[in-house]
Amino acid sequence: MDVMTAFNGKIVFITGASSGIGEACAHSFAAAGASLLLAARRKDRLEKSATDLRRLGAPNVHLLQLDVTQPMAVAGAIAGLPEEWKAIEILINNAGLSRGLDKLYAGQIDDWEEMIDTNVKGLLYVTRAVVPGMVSRGRGHIVNIGSTAGEITYPGGAVYCATKAAERAISDGLRQDVLGTPVRVTSVDPGMVETEFSEVRFRGDTDRAAKVYQGLTPLKPADVADAILWATTRPAHVNIARISLTPIDQANSLLFNRKA
Ligand code: NDP
Ligand code: 8X3
Questions:
Q1: Ligand 2: does its nearest atom lie under 6 Å from the Cβ of 35?
Q2: pLDDT digit string, tens, across residues 132-187
Q3: CA nearest ligand 2 atom 6, residue
Q4: What is the largest CA-CA distance in the chain?
Q5: pTM value > 0.90
Q6: What single-letter DSSP state applies at residue 206?
Q7: Would you tell me how many other CB atoms lie within 10 Å of the CB of residue 158?
Q8: Which of 178, 149, 62, 160 is nearest to 118 (CA)?
Q9: Exposed e or buried b per residue across 121-140, where buried means at least 16 C-beta atoms within 10 angstroms of its C-beta
Q10: pLDDT for 6
Q11: Which residue of 129, 187, 226, 231 pairs with 171 in a disulfide if CB–CB is 3.0 to 4.6 A?
Q12: Does the C-beta of 21 come closer than 6 Å to ligand 2?
């Protein structure tokens, strides 16, 4: 399949498209000719990139200001889509965040709530709103963004890692529940990717965020977008269940090769 023309106006819905991995996915799928339905809380950011995305090759771009932690808002946004945007072909459940790196027994309850509400419940709300249409149309592919953090827990990361372990269980469960339909489910599980992720985790402390990537070469958001583009362009009878990708300087979520 020619990836550069693979999508030919098919609708790709990306949550958390205002930054990092989601934004890189928007660029890659635009270049592959997809029509893009993009969601995030910061709609101004989405608006800034819409012109570039059309120039790259997206036939149409539709923007949603959406907080995935709000179940009524999620259901309303999907139910209220203009008719020509309803047939979502690919859903990339990417919106997510981490907050803090405290020991569990000293953790902030608000941080826990925000991570669970966004990474677990938000993913579920979007899935519940979008997947019935895929099943009834008899086509669709859900890509959930997991993490190496969901495979091995690291110190201070218990709750974030638990949300990504939950993503893994939800992806596996959904794949079983759509068995017998043509709908596909893939979990894409990156290691360290340089995005705004660590700035968000440390609430704008850019020095602390920069130290996360010090002495190693992290993945770029485009590396993850490449993996997603590959998984979603396999022949219709092929389901890629999981892709785990790390920088060459990372063996798993605990072990890194950092130059002094
Ligand atoms: P960024 O902080 O760069 O991007 C996060 C995106 O999620 C933003 O677009 C943000 O948009 C959106 N988002 C956060 N909360 C909400 C919400 N309540 N409603 C809607 N959108 C929301 O980080 P990344 O690109 O790195 O993160 C993307 C995904 O990748 C996350 O699920 C993360 O857990 C995962 N991941 C990241 C890795 C990394 O090392 N960076 C590695 C493995 C997985 P806005 O603020 O405008 O709403
Ligand atoms: C994000 C990667 O290792 O910083 O999921 O948690 S990590």
A1: no
A2: 999 999 999 999 999 999 999 999 999 999 999 999 999 999 999 999 999 999 99
A3: 149
A4: 56
A5: yes
A6: H
A7: 15
A8: 160
A9: bbbbbbbebbbebbeeeebb
A10: 81
A11: 187
A12: no
Residue type at 99 in one-letter notation: R
CA of 6 to the centre of ligand 2 (A): 31
Query: Residue 139 has which token pair?
Result: 């086509």
Rounded to the nearest angstrom, the distance between the alpha carbon of 97 and the centre of ligand 1 is 5
- Confidence band, pLDDT 50/70/90 cuts, at residue 252: very high
Q: What are the pLDDT digits (tens) for 5-23? A: 689 999 999 999 999 999 9
Q: Residue 3 has what pLDDT?
A: 65
- Using CA atoms, how far apart are residues 194 and 96, in angstroms rounded to an integer? 14
Q: In the structure encoding, which two tokens stand for residue 64, read together?
A: 């949603």
DSSP codes of every residue in 84-149: GG--EEEEEE----------GGG--HHHHHHHIIIIIIIHHHHHHHHHHHHHHHT--EEEEE--GG
Cβ-based neighbour number of residue 105 at 10 Å: 6
Residues in CB range of 87: below 8 A, 6 or more apart: 11, 133, 137
Identify which ligand lies nearest to the alpha carbon of 92: 1
243: β partners: 188
Domain 3-245, architecture per CATH: 3-Layer(aba) Sandwich (3.40)
Residue 122 contacts residue 69 (beta carbons within 8 Å): yes
Q: How far are the Cα atoms of 35, 47, 94, 118, 152 from residue 15, in angstroms, in the given order?
A: 14, 14, 5, 11, 25
For residue 154, indicate whether it is catalytic.
Answer: no
State the chain's mean pLDDT as an integer.
97
